[in-house]
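User: Can you help me understand a structure? I only have the sequence.
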Amino acid sequence: MSLFVLLPAYNEQESIRPLFKKFQTLQEISNMEIRLILVDDGSSDATAQTALEESQSLGILLKLVQHPKNAGLGQAIKTGFMTFLEISKEGDFLAAMDCDNTQPPELLIKMYNTMIVGSYDIAIASRYRRGSKVIGLSKFRELMSYGASWLFRIAANLPGVRDYTCGYRLYNRTFVTKLHMYYGNSLFTESGFACMIDLLLKAKVLKPKIIEIPMVLRYDQKPTASKMKVLKTITRILNLLFKNLSSTGKTPDLGQTFNEQQIVRIPEKIGNRK
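Assistant: Let's start by predicting it. Here is the structure, written out as tokens:
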């Protein structure tokens, strides 16, 4: 079993060194094989080169995929998920998290153990469970996230979910495969930060078993400014909310046999592979 970690990155040169050091420590204390998938989304700094150098120096397995120009978080997440399906095997897990050193990699141990014991499909690092804490985030951003949480709890009502906007999640490969088989190229249609909400809402039709693990979010450790376009993100979130309220969804065929040929391959023109 391998634990893959998807890191969408845009100008995160300063974050990579301390973050990769945490992954090295995590690998040592967990005895798990950790493999990073870093999607460099058209960075103008030395994000890609720094990632290669640090992974080699620390002995961390790294798959680097580069976009020739910035395409947005949604496209970076799509590239990461498709890369995972290509290079992983049944029984592996995929974690998706920010590359800005604000989310604790060590939480993956608890997320993974909880998923195994409870046979969960998704584990979410949540800011809205007992024991969670947010440090260094502006009051406006906290209010926006909290408001979105309550709106989607009412509108989507996914069992076990309070934190719809946090992208720090752990997925088992079987469920990722089902998602891809069901939606195909329409799985990722949001380009910005709302893509993580959209992914969770789309997962609802497959009736996933979800667990939330309390997280301490350290926004005070972020070395670069946020890339979120707040007004645009709010607009997209509201659009997703109304879309979810008006949609009914079709009934999926969960008994369909998985065929590796059904995976959409990443076009070579999307970037360089290291």
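Now, to help you interpret it: The radius of gyration is 18 Å. Residues 13-30 form the longest helix (18 residues). Let me know which part you'd like to focus on.
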